[in-house]
Amino acid sequence: MTEKKDEKSELIRQVGLLTVIPILLAVGPLVGMLIGNLLDGWLGTEPYLMWVFIVLGFVAAGQETYKLIKKVSKD
After folding, report:
1. Rounded to whole angstroms, how far apart are CA atoms 72 and 68?
2. What whole-number distance in Å separates Cα of residue 70 and Cα of residue 75?
């Protein structure tokens, strides 16, 4: 009985971790865009820093997604 309960709780944990992936992939570039826009307005470099920070947001989101998938598959 406890073995079945452990499997169910582990499955719920993995599903919970994997549902974070779309959020990560959306939030990273959005935060990058906001930071880039703020810096562009402050430094007058529109739109270059926005694009740089969007790309950095995608890279950061990709790295976090990779770490999360690696963690879930290890467990």
Report:
1. 6
2. 9
